[in-house]
Amino acid sequence: MAAQPGGVLQVPRHTERTMASRMIRSLRQRPIRALGPIILSLIVLGALLAPVISPHDANAASFELRLKPPFWMEGGSTTHFLGTDQLGRDIWTRILYGARISLLIGLLAMLVAGPGGVFLGLISGYQGGLVDTLIMRLADGQLAFPAILLAITIIAVLGRSLVILILVLGLTKWVVYTRVARAEVLRLKATDYVVASRAVGASHARTLFRHILPNLLTPVIVLASFSVAEMILAEASLSFLGLGVQPPTPSLGGMISDGRNYLANAWWVATWPGLAVLITVLAINFMGDWLTEVLRPRSVL
């Protein structure tokens, strides 16, 4: 405590760091953490500006240009610097448009799975009893069924479309959000401020959405970042099997599938889309690791 003029004692206050300052401080401590956000920003920017970055049409075929190698190889050209595929389409252009589709599907599927899963986790953890048992047994039942097999079954029954693909991916991932939310609710129910809220007569809805939900957003945000990467991998897997994004729409998984028959004499057709998936997923995972560090609860002392 410090004495002020007039004999008044002032107690020093520990102010909580803002989110922006914690992010900057984290990057200053370990600059390598910026790698994920930077790469992911470049990928998103490239996907959004695909028509500007590449002058080629993603679906324009030319048999005269088929299987052209990258520019540094014999027969390559800087016009198609990553080469062309079996139909003469520019691979760089198709990667840009394919990344746009993958990011869109990953984000929307996460938005389908996240809110519903978190809501069920809230109800399960807070209500307990029979409701908790029913929701958890439903979650256990889905976990016992392979996600990719469930997705294949649903798509085979309902048909192949972008909307169905997003809904199917969301349906296979809600369980993770439910379990994380339930565990956090069980922990938060025993905290003093939740007990006090119930003691003064606050309704269940107010306790849940005013006092509990805001305090479990941190693990949910981190989980969502990793979930987007999982959705992108799942979409690429289904597209590789021919059950995801349908031609002629560019898809990274579909490009890998098309190029597997040309690995011996045209490795670039499958390699570049595969690297695009790898780099995108790694960038999102690095971003998730950084968010885990930034959003981790810390003492203000």
What keywords describe this structure?
301 residues; two-stranded antiparallel sheet; MetI-like fold; mainly alpha; disordered N terminus
Based on secondary structure, the structural category is: mainly alpha
Shape descriptor reads elongated
The ordered string of helix (H) and strand (E) elements is: EEHHHHHHHHHHHH
Euclidean distance between termini CA atoms: 15 Å
**Total beta strands:** 2
Binned strand content: under 5%
Structure commentary:
This protein has 301 residues and is an all-alpha fold. It has one domain: MetI-like fold (Orthogonal Bundle), CATH 1.10.3720. It is built from 12 helices and 2 strands. The relative contact order is 0.14. The N terminus is likely disordered.
Question: Which SSEs are present, and which pair or pack?
Answer:
Elements: E1 2-3, E2 9-10, H1 19-29, H2 35-48, H3 50-53, H4 91-127, H5 129-143, H6 147-158, H7 162-188, H8 192-199, H9 204-212, H10 217-240, H11 252-259, H12 268-295
Antiparallel strand pairs: 1-2
Helix pairs in contact: 1-12, 2-4, 2-12, 4-5, 4-7, 4-10, 4-12, 5-7, 6-7, 7-10, 8-9, 10-11, 10-12, 11-12
Give the structure's gist in a few sentences.
Helix content is 65%, strand content 1%. By secondary structure, the protein is mainly α.
